[in-house]
Write a structure and sequence with these properties.
Distance between the termini: 11 Å
Order of helices and strands: EHEHEEEHEEEHEEHEHEHEH
Helix content: 25-40%
Strand order of the largest sheet: 5-4-3-2-1-11-12-13
């Protein structure tokens, strides 16, 4: 059997709105693993933001924080958090700017300017919270999500940090962190060649992953730029497109 490594985006690909994956997609993932293929969740979400009903599907590992965190089995094999200087700069910029911001950590989530109804996670008072003696000292922040159009912060954050601009929100990552780099690291560790990899996604943070994979699959309804980066298109999330793609590619 030709063993494949399969990398699945979460939001918009196998689930949405913090709901569990469909029975069809769940069954397809489990069939692929039972057949000897390796299946990985490859999401922009940091591990603290990945919810239980997704993890319960069962994966061989996780590429989280858009490539900044890798867990194989129960072992963390790679992490690339924002440096102390990057985190301080980002907090200062967004604290002054007033945007609603989520700091996605390895162990917890943190907020800036979130309305009371959305304060499920602790608010950040300032950069000192993450510095020695601070409330969250020692906690890794892997990614920042800021809501609203990207503006003047771009020139203040780049090139030390990369910005994935989704229009109405942006993901801020340490420079060089991306899903395709996470894929590359996983493939090297498990010994499966790049040409035997499959990636499914629907968003701008999936572009490099779809281009890097042996077969890149865009979800139905994905933006044109995502479709153009892929080798093929499957059905939408509502149509169980992930299950359809796995059936077509794995037989």
């Amino acid at each position: 059997m030709r063993q494949r490594a399969i990398f699945l985006d979460l939001d918009g690909t196998i689930a949405a709105g913090n709901r569990p994956p469909s029975e069809a997609d769940t069954a397809a993932i489990r069939r692929a693993r039972a057949a000897g293929h390796r299946v990985f969740l490859c999401t922009g979400r940091a591990p603290s933001y990945i919810y239980d009903s997704v993890l319960e599907v069962g994966f061989d590992g996780i590429v989280g924080a858009a490539g900044g965190y890798i867990r194989l089995g129960g072992e963390v094999v790679y992490r690339r958090p924002l440096s102390a200087g990057q985190l301080r700069r980002a907090i200062e910029i967004y604290q002054a700017g007033g945007k609603r911001v989520y700091l996605e950590g390895e162990e917890n989530m943190y907020t800036l300017h979130a309305p009371p109804s959305e304060r499920r996670w602790p608010p950040v008072d300032g950069p000192a919270d993450f510095e020695p003696g601070g409330r969250f000292a020692g906690q890794n922040v892997l990614k920042i999500t800021a809501y609203g159009p990207v503006g003047g912060e771009r020139r203040l954050l780049e090139p030390e940090m990369d910005i994935i601009d989704h229009g109405d929100y942006a993901e801020i990552l340490p420079a060089g962190v991306c899903k395709s780099d996470g894929m590359r690291r996983v493939l090297e560790l498990i010994g499966i060649p790049r040409e035997d990899s499959i990636a499914l996604g629907d968003s701008r943070n999936d572009l490099d992953m779809l281009r890097y994979a042996g077969v890149g699959v865009a979800m139905g309804g994905a933006p044109d730029v995502v479709v153009q980066a892929a080798d093929r298109v499957t059905g939408s999330l509502e149509e169980n497109g992930a299950a359809s793609a796995l059936a077509a590619l794995l037989g």
